[in-house]
Sequence to fold (246 residues):
Amino acid sequence: MRTSRIRTAALAAATAALGLALTACGGSSDDNGGGKASDGGRSAGSSGSAEGATVNADKGATVGAGKDSASASASASGASAGTGAGTGKEAAAKGNGAKASAAGVRACDGQEMSYSVLHRFAKQRGEHLLITATNADTKPCYVTSYPSVMLGDTVGVLPHSGKDTPGGGKALVVKPGGKVYAAVNLFSDSARTHTSSDLSIAMLDHTGDAGPGAGTEAFDAKGVPSKFTWTSADVTNWNTAKPYDY
Fold:
């Protein structure tokens, strides 16, 4: 069991500040984004397996840095250091022209989710982190957009992949025990790289707000913590099929 309250606060601060900055400028309509987080702290547990590490977000935990945290600073150091990405609010505003909705089903906020992260194709072309989110609750919920992710000790929320397929504005209902997938694409194109096995994950709703975050490690196919290296990175939409499943 490991906790990651400092990383959660940083994740919330980054998403909140990005959202506030965009709001002050009148907003735009990109699919990129991070989103803001709700009040409180967070904790998560993790366990390794051949499928990756599983992290169960604490039912009583909420992310620090509220919607009114106008002073929150998103100094984007490292891979996601201000790559021009917008926020989840932008993604929600555009959403491919569709508003996420699921009649009678609530949005997944992350507290009901367990996460696993599998490091694939280490040091090869196509290297990425496969994120699997499993609904561990007894009721269905829906996801939309893409996960809000920070890597290692950086405080910048990763942008949405510009090469992703459309569909981030749709609501994907996740039944109890059901799974959805997203990928963090890793790029190393200079000597100025970062290395870590840690990352933080939070759910974004269709408005771009972030739910409780979870800190975990990436694992290889043998269930061993796996360090990844990156200069820059981005993240894909949630999907019912595994991205890059080849």
